[in-house]
Every structure is written in structure tokens, then in C-alpha cells.
Amino acid sequence: MILWSEQYVLSDSIVNHLKNKYADPYFLKGDEGWGQHYTGYHKNPNNTSITVNGKFVDQELLKIYVPKLKDVLKMIGLYGSGSIYSYSSIWGQLYKKELGAIIDVHNHYRHPSQLVSWVHFVDVPDQKCFYFMLGDQKVYPDTQSSSDIIFYPSYALHGVDKMEEGDDRFVVAGNIVQMNS
Which of 16, 91, 143, 155 has the most CB atoms at less than 10 Å from its CB? Predict the structure, then answer.
């Protein structure tokens, strides 16, 4: 499932700043049945669910990640073909153990232009929470330690288990979308 993975280390000051930023109640999402977590995703204008209040694209995350995303697209042969790509579908997610969040199985594929999804495991406990769903089996990639970043096809079914260890878990995720050139 993984197209590319590597270590992408952010400075402690950037990590702490982002975790503090996303710990704001503005980003809190969820309910008692599924637990809660902090995420910028529900504020993203690319999300068409009824919970969207729109117009939130984290410009700070774009500055941190767009150069890395372009480099990876070049490595996997998708960049420089005359295509234009959008990186604005990007969000931070902060999980707190006491909030008990899970993310049910889903994918990010809605249209053939949605090529690649990715997760950066910025600061995570040893517990592997992220998994791909293959048939009825959960498959946990080895590459989900702190600072690991993985890229996978947007159609890949995946989810996130409830945290059973550690105090918090911070990831940044996104989608790379091919625009018409």
C-alpha cells in the first residue's frame, strides 16, 4: 500500500507550536460514541460534509510541507509532467488518550484526480494506531513511528484505532490532487 516512506524530522519548537495550535477547542470534533480529537479537517473547504464551516486552510502547514510533497512526487514520477497539483487539502490531528477517538475505515478517493494521500506521524506513542484495511484484516505499517511520513494511494482503505498508550498523538495528513493543466 505504501508508495513512499521516510523520516521527516521537524524541530521540537515547530512540533510543540503545532500541537498547541491544534489543542484549541476550535478544532475539537467528535462525539461520545466515536470519541473526540482535534482536527483542522472539518474546517477544510474541500470537505463537503454538513459540519463544514469552511475557509480554513492552514497556511503554516502548507509552508512546512509543500516542498517535501513536491520532492516526493518527483521521486515517485508524478511531478514535472506538465500537471498542476493542489496541496491545500492538509490538516493536523491531535489525539488525547482520555478523549478516546477512533477514525472508522475510509478512503480519500472521490475522483480520479485524487492521486496520493499521506500521513506524517509527527509525535506519536509506540502503539501503532494507523492501519490499512485489506478485506476484513487490519494491516499496521511498520513505518508509523515519530517523524515517519508515508504516502499511499488515495483509494486505500484505512482507519485509526483508539489510543491505549501514551498521552497524545499528533499527525499531519493530506491529499495531493491533480488539477487540470
Answer: 91
